[in-house]
Structure formats: structure tokens, C-alpha cells
Amino acid sequence: MGKRRMPDLYRAPFPLYTIKVDPKTGWVITAGGGGGSKTGIKNAVHFLGLELVGGQHCATLVHSHDTDTHATMNLAIGGDVIAAGQDGRCSLMRFRQRQPRGKAAAKDGGGSEQGTARRRAGKGGKGSEGAAARGNVSEMNDNTTQISVDSFGEVQSDLNPQDPLQKCVRFSPDLSLLLTGGTDGHIRVWEVSLSYAKIAAMLRLLPNCYCAGFSLTVMPLLSHQYPSLKEKLDFKAHEGEIEDLDISPNNKHLVTVGRDFACSIWSGNQLAMSLCWHEKMPQIAAKSYRYMSCRFGKVEDQKDTLRLYTVQIPHKRDRKPPQCYLSKWDGQNFLPMLTNPCGTEVISTLAVSDSGTFLGLGTVTGSVAIYVAFSLQKLYYAQESHGIVVTDLAFLPDTLKGQSLKGNNEAAMLSVAVDSRCQMHTVRNRRSFPIWLVLFFCGLMVVGAVLLLQHLFPGFI
């Protein structure tokens, strides 16, 4: 482990701030931009088609959705809806795949551009070009993925009078709630229309093999229905900016972290408790660290068990950089379970795999690491893989599509940074011995020990 310059999976024409993977289709959705300044750097949401070819991952731009003068700083996916943080508002977009009808490229009403996936030409490349030259363009387009994106609304998610900025956004696991946090220290919660949330959640859980038949009956109903939002909660959670938030799978607890050194557990808008990660570490001075990230995670093979993970970073920079820390908490009673140092590079982002087995960390110096959630031990490390701060991470989901894209890897994680690059980081499947082989060797050792004792001490046995 050390400096490991990873090959770029994709490079955008603008800084990338956020990345997510649609669990149903496997599309990689990443976004960013240059903001409202007139620098010529565009703002857009890019849809990438991810493939595994010969054990190597490759990505192609399938669709680009222009976001005008607003750079998307964070986003969440709920069914086929994207909630995108743009300045002090949360913009809502609907995406779906459409059947091509003989047009190679199209622009939708929301300023979207349809890209054609670039593939390497094999020996039949000349034949394909010849077919296109003869006018058989429609045949080529029939195999091209086409995505339409519609912007259908927005909500004001931050009311900071000076510089409003939404810092984080999450859908609840059942897609019934949309939660945002911003620089004004407020948590805002919206209820998603019940009928849409139920259908979207059902589609999300369906296996890929049922997509075609199911979509014939349900998708026409869903495609004409946009979710409506009704504000449910608006409360002051922190003094100053909110850095991160997450909600438990049963919607019972909301966890928030802010720049005011606090990590708070909420039940609705009522403060249930505040966490203290260094309670048993007297060498850590008060307010020398602040919370940076928080995420709930499952425990593999333990259905009803839940964990909470938090990252703590130094509040001030020293000439000799102090350690950052990674903590694990019981997700039911929020008692501390384990805290480990995770290096002197300041952590910028945290991700948890669907199974809860792995944690991903990105740093302000461009490094990427993968940890084992059980022991908080480092498993993978790519030092300064990006040229600058890592802005977001996303593990490939544990759906059928996600598993097929992982290949012979135990984990696969995407990273994006301000350097406009998207990279893939993988952990190969670790070899394990079958239990029968372990028992066989144990038996051999017992027999060998008996024979050795009989040889050294005749008549002992």
C-alpha cells in the first residue's frame, strides 16, 4: 500500500462533487460544475454506463443533463427521482430509460443532451461504419441506451441570508421522507407522496429479471405521476453548518453532525441524545476535534443489528498533523463500540457498503481507503489517487446488477474529486479454506503428534 495512481474510469469537463449508483440499472450518476461564475465551465449531471470487460471496468457517457448556472454539490436517489443540492435549494429531477426511435441524439426540454456510448471497434468495425454510411442509422440506434431527464420542481432547503448552501440530502430507506441540511443549521424534512413512495420502493426491490413484464403494467402508471412533497419538519439542529446527516432504516432515529462539535441523535425534532466519542480518551482535549461524517450500516448475517459510523477530524491544523479517528457505535442504544485512528490525512467523505461489511474514506489530499467495518482495520489504500480533495464515494450496490458489475471482487467503490476524475477501487475476493480441509489438517496434526510421542517415549501410549 502506498502511492497508487489509479487509471481514470471517466473524466468530466467540470469538477465532480457527488456520485451515486442507481441500484436497479447500475447507471453511475455523477454531477458538479463551475457554478454561477462566468468561467466557461458548465454545470451538469452525467449518466454513465458501467461495464465489466475482461475483468476491467469501463464507463461511457450515456446522457448529460444541463443544470444551467447551478452546480450540483450533493444528490440522493429515490427510485427514479434525483434530489440535487444546488445552492440553497433542492432541485427534483425524474430520470427514466426510453426506447430509441431512430434518432441518434436528442435534446429534452430540461436542457439534456443525449450521448451515444463509445465502444471500441473490433474487426467488424468497418462493417458497422459501412452500414451507417448506407443509411442504416436506425439499426445502430436501436442498441443505444437513451435516458430522459425532467426537472419537475424544487424546494428551498437553506435560508442562510448570506450564502445559502445545501450541504447534504438523503431519502429515507422506504423513500417516504426527503431530508436536507445546510449552512443555516436547520434540518428540513419533507413527506413524499405515499402512492409514489410505495410504487418506487417496490420497483427498487424487484429483481432485474422481472423488470420487463412488471414495467408493462406499473411503469405507465408511475411515468405519469410525479411525487409531491409536503414539509413535515423544520428545526434548528446545530449552531452553524450541518456537515452530514443520515436516518435509520426504520425512520426512528435521525443522526446529524455539525461544525459546532456535536453529533446529535433525534427522534422527530426532539433531541434524544448527544454522542461523545472521546469519553474514554482523556488525552483528547475538548473541542480539539469535530465530527465530519455519519452513516448507518447493516451487519452482515444479522438482520436486526445496526451500526452507526462517525468520522472525527482535527478542528485546527498543526505543523505536525494529528490523527483522524473512525468510530463505531451500536445503532440501537448508541453506545460506543470501537474507535481507531485512520491516518493523518484529513477525511473529507465517508461511505458504507450495502452489506455493511466495508467502509470507504476519502481525504482532502486525494487519497482513498477501504476499511473492514467489523474491526475498523485498513484493507485498501491508494495514496493521492486523486490530485485534490475527494468529494464523494459510492460502493457498487448488492443488487443483481451490482453483483454482476463487481466481477471477481469482494468490494468495488467509485470515487470522484475536484480534479474532474472518476475512479474505481476494488478489493479482490479473499481466498478462504473449506471447513473440511481445515478439519483434515487438524486430524493430520493430531495423528502426527501421537506418532511423535510414541516414537520419543515408547510405551507411553
TrEMBL record:
Which InterPro entries does UniProt cross-reference here? Sec12-like (IPR045260), WD40/YVTN_repeat-like_dom_sf (IPR015943), WD40_repeat_CS (IPR019775), WD40_repeat_dom_sf (IPR036322), WD40_rpt (IPR001680)
Q: Extract the ranges annotated as region (Disordered).
A: 96-142
In its UniProt entry, the species of origin is given as Salmo trutta
Where are this protein's WD repeats? Answer: 169-193, 235-267
User: Where's it found, cell-wise?
Assistant: Endoplasmic reticulum membrane
Name the GO terms of the biological process aspect: endoplasmic reticulum to Golgi vesicle-mediated transport; protein transport; regulation of COPII vesicle coating
GO MF annotations, alphabetized: guanyl-nucleotide exchange factor activity
Topology relative to the membrane: Single-pass membrane protein
Which Pfam families does the record associate with it?
WD40 (PF00400)
What gene codes for this chain? PREB
* Coiled coil spans: none
Main location group: endoplasmic reticulum
Identification of the protein by name: Prolactin regulatory element binding
The UniProt keywords, alphabetically, are: Endoplasmic reticulum, ER-Golgi transport, Membrane, Protein transport, Repeat, Transmembrane, Transmembrane helix, Transport, WD repeat
**Any one annotated GO CC term:** endoplasmic reticulum membrane
Report if keyword Cell division is assigned.
no
TM region(s), chain numbering: 433-457
